[in-house]
Amino acid sequence: MRPLRWLLAAVLVVAACGNGGGPRSPDDGAREAGGPEVHVRAMATVAPIADLVTRVLGDRGTVRSVVPPGADSHTFEPSPGQARALAEADVFFGNGLHLNDAVLRLAEANLPDGAPLVLLAEDVLDDDEVITDDWVGAVDGHGHTHGDGGHTHGHTHGDGDAGEANPHAWMDPLIARRYVERIAEVLTDVDPEGAATYEANAGAEIERIQRLHEATEEAIASIPEDQRMLVTFHDGLSYWAARYGLELVAVVQPADFSEPSARGVREVMDVVRRSGARAVFGSEVFPSDVLAVIAEETGAAYVGDLSDDTLPGEPGAAEHSYVGMVAMNARLVVEGLGGDASPLDGVERA
Q: Are strands 13-14 and 61-65 parallel, antiparallel or unpaired?
């Protein structure tokens, strides 16, 4: 293997799964001197995917997230430091579906010859599983309400696909299970001697994700049936909502990530009033006063802390993980819509 050269201005994680301490977060900092031998240097696009890779890789290597904690994965522009890190990587795990084409182009240009470039969503999803803008409609010609026209991130999936693909497939735990399986396959190809470790670690993470899924189903079943609807600022919960039978009635944010127009805001208010939505949900990555105004004008509650690419809590905390992030979102939605979130208690610590 190449010598370890990771003292660059970006985030480095040491995966410690299998050594009794649990896996470290994708933004834990540099690997300590004298640690386990590094068999695989992996890079990933965003923290949730990096966390899944970390948990499968265990103590056989390091995982580094190209998009740093707190940055917007959709618009992040990578730096020369990330290019140098990619040039040292053994494998790159992206999402695909054009989540961030700038990062993909950087990986294509800088990965060493023979290093796999893996796009997990495109690898594990069939075309008919990809949610497109046909599923939600347009507010002001840019954002969404339920019913006509719309946007996601300006790309298609598969030949002849009529809509624009939503990239946030990892938010559905049952799709994330497939991500884990694919990660284990790729790591085994890269490092065959670690096959048993990858199989065991993937199995443990799949069990955690399955418990999350079952707890989420139980919690959402407690929401009154006439309140199982979502009004969100960003479109990160489309796959999650579809999995659990929630109707996504409005997504506010325009395709260029700007603030919606006054007309668009009025349209969303009309949707909220007609639907009787109990709450509107914002994203911590996209702070905006728009949903607060919509909530005030319509009488809906405002919940502003959803996340699709930022792990909750501090590095090393039990909730600072993919499972912790999705469990946090589920709790916020269930409580915001009048359900009982107690089935989710402790899921991130399981």
A: antiparallel
Continuous segment of H or E residues that includes residue 283: strand 279-283
Mean pLDDT of 318-322: 94
The enclosing domain of 94 has a CATH number of 3.40.50.1980
Structure token digits, residue 260: 């919606």
Last residue of a domain, one of 154, 175, 207: 207
Whether residues 183 and 289 share a domain: the answer is no
Average pLDDT for the chain: 81
User: C-alpha angle 260/264/267, rounded to 5°?
Assistant: 150
Instruction: Give the whole-angstrom CA distance, residue 132 versus residue 168.
Output: 11
The domain of 301 spans 216-349
Residue 134: partners with Cβ closer than 8 Å, 6 or more residues away: 150, 162, 163
Please check whether residues 255 and 183 belong to one and the same domain: no
Phi-psi group of 327: left, alpha or beta (phi > 0 → left; psi -120 to 50 → alpha; rest → beta): alpha
Q: What is the pLDDT of residue 2?
A: 37
Instruction: Choose among 96, 309, 71, 67: nearest CA to 182.
Output: 96
- pLDDT tens for each residue of 33-92: 456 789 999 999 999 999 999 999 999 999 998 887 666 666 677 777 789 999 999 999
Q: 267 is written with which tokens?
A: 């349209």
pTM for this structure?
Answer: 0.81
**79 is a domain residue:** yes
Q: Where are the alpha helices (DSSP H) in 65-194?
A: 80-87, 101-110, 120-124, 173-190
Q: Among 147-156, 199-208, 227-236, 257-266, where is mean pLDDT lowest?
A: 147-156
Q: What is the DSSP letter of 228?
A: -
- Alpha-carbon gap, residue 62 to 54, rounded angstroms: 7
Q: Which residue type, as a one-letter code, is found at position 149?
A: G
Distance CA 183, CA 22 (A): 18
- pLDDT at position 257: 58
Tell me, rounded to whole angstroms, the distance of Cα 350 from its chain centroid.
Answer: 20
